[in-house]
Predict the structure.
Amino acid sequence: MENFQDKVAVITGGASGIGQALAERCLQEGMKIMLADVEADALTKTAAAFRAGYNNPIETQVVDVSVLEELTALRDATLEAYGSVHLLFNNAGVGGAGGAWTGTEKDWAWVIGVNLMSVVHGQRLFVPIMLEQNEPGHIVNTASVAGLMGGVTNAPYSVTKHGVVALTEHLYRDLLVANAQVGCSVLCPGIIRTNIGDSGRNRPEALKNNDPVALTPQQEAMRAQFAAVMAEGMLPSAVAKTVFEGIRNNQLYIQTHDQFNERIMARAQDITQGTNPDPKIFQWLN
């Protein structure tokens, strides 16, 4: 996809961070946008700022992407407002929590629902529409560089991001087999200046743990270290620029930080050679 003028973009998680930057880049490219987010106040504020700076059509929808019915309503509202969809960003995500066995059922349900099933349902709902249009389009699924490495973040987050990578690889194959004019990419960002570390603010009451486990001093220190690194991370606007370059090049894998390539290659070598990972490889920040 190369021509974006007057085309329609749908962006989930669009009220902040990478989603907000992607939405603004869409506006700069001359697109009409449907901005979706679970945070109503942030969504209203972001849309107001965009309307003050751009003349493009801008629609909004409050959406919990983990709920199929709400994503269905997003699709229907987009078609009612614009009649078509050309660019889909399945971008909404949460940081998650929990280890391989310490994560609770609610931890897993929350993170899988937002990070993985929202992408599954987003593709199921929007791709048929995009194919029926019989014109160029593109889907961008947001994963993480953690979806290309092994065991560097909490278990639910890592599992879902690996899942999004695999899902997008299947989508890429299926679109090729269908000889579609629609392309796809999986975005695997590294350290980006967002508020994903505060994802718990949007966790539904029904999926909050009844007896939250207090963090150990070591965990508190790691959280503080992670927050400090994130505060110095790449700007979301730079990510959006990289993403649009990837869309124009019909690039399946889009990364933002080549510093992680050594770890990605180390994982691949461990798999192909049957060796166990070096414990140091699990250190996310070093």
About this structure: Strands lie at 8-12, 32-37, 58-62, 87-90, 137-142, 182-188, 253-255. The chain has a mean pLDDT of 92. The helical segments are 17-28, 40-53, 68-82, 105-133, 155-177, 217-231, 236-248, 261-273.
